[in-house]
């Protein structure tokens, strides 16, 4: 099966700024792929190369097997893009904007109206169909950008920070909408600053930093790279650290805090059962156990911290 996105050694320079510095990535068809990275990491440049808004300085980029420059039309027709910026024609009612867009991508006029209505209903702003873009609320504008991306029925939907500045309700609505699309076969490429969003939605995430891929991984695998904290509370508070064999190799630190045992370990969820068994066998009476997982956010901050990024050029 051809990958939805296949990138090899992609480079982009703007004058003396290197925005993409040899990015290689493969996004499988049907996946929900997250692109994370701090401001200026190169995420928007990456997307702009895919949709033909920016010319690459080197390397290869293909969408469903079509080169984004030499096969521009074929590649572009497969993509729906909801950009970060509101770049919408402000003088026409939004339904007409959608009809024009569909027509531009070769959809006949009779179908274009139907398609426009369908996507406006899908994103929940059909009743605003005769309104101009400028007169929509901020949240409706975000919904409209997604409708515009969907009007051509794309196989690859690219969402550049779709939930920036939207309220919790709308964020959840948008999550439901894009999860449905993905379940029905649309490949999704999502950039976001909300790590929780990536954690919740994505099958796989790539972390970009300084124009390079720091890592590609599932959110779970990434979290496994962080340190979890296991806190054990006893009927009688303890004063000193017991001798422990559990989690050999995974345990990073063992301390006593306020009479409780605190164990820092990678994959704490796996260490905890052995720990409980061992303490129990040694006669400790446990009344509470808490395992707090490291967050993807902590791992992300650690990996993209200036100078401490581990560049492994791709898959772990
Ligand atoms: N048209 C341009 N001309 C010059 N430099 C640019 C241009 N577009 C982007 N850059 C630079 O390229 C680098 C990558 O920018 P890009 O917008 O791709 O990052 P990003 O990861 O999308 O950031 P953000 O999260 O802030 O949107 C930055 O240093 C930026 O200043």
From TrEMBL:
Signal peptide: none annotated. Residues 5-235 form the ABC transporter domain. GO terms for molecular function: ATP binding. The keyword Transport applies. Keywords: ATP-binding, Nucleotide-binding, Transport. Belongs to the ABC transporter superfamily. This is ATP-binding cassette domain-containing protein. It comes from Haloplanus litoreus.
